[in-house]
Amino acid sequence: MNGTWRLSWHGVRTVAALELRQRVRSTRWIVALVVWFVVVGAITALTTGALGTLTGQDTSPLHRGPLLFFVVTFLVLGLGLLVTPTLSSTAVNGDRAAGTLATVQVTLLTPAEIATGKLLGAFAAATAFLVASLPFYGLAMAMGGTRVLTLVSVVVVTAVILASVCGMGIGFSALTARTAGSTVLTFLGVSALAVFTLVFFGLTLPANTSQEQVRVWGVSPSSASSALASDATTSVTSPTCEWRVETRPVTHTERTWWLLAANPFVVVSDASAVPQQDLRTVTSPFAAIREAIRTARAGATGVSNECWGPTGQAALPTEGPRPSTVPVWPWGLGFSVLLGAAGYVTAVRRLRIPQRTLPRGVRVA
């Protein structure tokens, strides 16, 4: 066991260097990096033009800058979740099929050093794609409205998510004999986090909805009628708000909020260092997503605020619900890291020699 998990910088660096040299020699990786840069740049340029058309003469950084930064972030994360599985899902079984894995295993390198080196090599390749996107982040920052701390938090969290995907890919690569199988399993794992979590959350909403008593802070029907009558006689009278109890459908999202918390896009949005804002006055899509997921975690409060004044702002009563300040992203990021760690541990255990049994058709050397 001690030999299996023993780590040294020399061993890890040797395996990582071999992985990177193999990728640099491959023209496919270089072509993929160029295509990545062109695609992200083209979509960023098109988004910038579209924002200019939609906002017209409005050059406020509170509108263009955060929107472009949001688009670039989600684009980079989405493409990263598509590219990263191909960088790690063949790290072990690909070398085994080529007959080079056994040569490395019989050296003084431990299984932990081999798995760690392959993980670092795949993560370095994924990081290259993230670094290639930094100029487009810079363009969004130059448009204003986004803090440097937001850029740092988004890039760091994105890098951790991509590292977790690399760990998952290496684990599946060590579990399956064929590279096609490990690639498909890794893509399914990523899809489960990025897509299926949203689908399952939506499908569970009807099951978590029931008719309950709700305290409503809003304009009473009699006050609204008096306001309309006063307006008809050119005398402006603002309607008054009061508490009333009504039976309404209430959805308990606090039971299934964790499905959204595991989504990488939600994690990045909630972790972004955007100032706390009210849902009615948000200027950044990150803030809107963050407030929505935190509200879903808080669940039904039994209180509804429906009192709107002449300026369109709600007059919150003292008993009304308040936006949650409890972060959600540590749970989602921790879950992703846990999946990546599980894949890494699986790879280390499967790289131990001698092995008592091998899958049918698997070559040793």
Task: Characterize the structure shown.
This protein is 64% helix and 7% strand. A three-stranded mixed β-sheet has the order 2-1-3. The protein has 15 helices and three strands. With 365 residues, the protein is mainly alpha-helical. The chain has two domains: 222 residues, no CATH class; 98 residues, no CATH class. It starts with a helix and ends in a 15-residue tail after the last helix.
Keywords:
365 residues; mainly alpha; three-stranded mixed β-sheet; 3 strands; 7% strand; globular
Question: What is the gyration radius calculated from CA atoms?
Answer: 26 Å
* SSE topology string: HHHHHHHHHHEHEHHHEH
| Morphology | globular
Mean of all residue-level pLDDT scores = 83
Describe the protein's topology:
Elements: H1 2-5, H2 9-25, H3 27-55, H4 64-88, H5 93-98, H6 101-105, H7 111-132, H8 134-142, H9 148-175, H10 179-204, E1 209-219, H11 221-232, E2 241-251, H12 257-261, H13 264-271, H14 285-298, E3 303-306, H15 329-350
Parallel strand pairs: 1-3
Antiparallel strand pairs: 1-2
Helix pairs in contact: 2-7, 3-4, 4-7, 4-8, 4-9, 4-10, 7-9, 7-15, 9-10, 9-13, 9-15, 13-14, 13-15
Short summary:
This protein is mainly alpha-helical. Helices cover 64% and strands 7% of the residues. The longest helix is centred in the first third of the chain and has 29 residues, at 27-55.
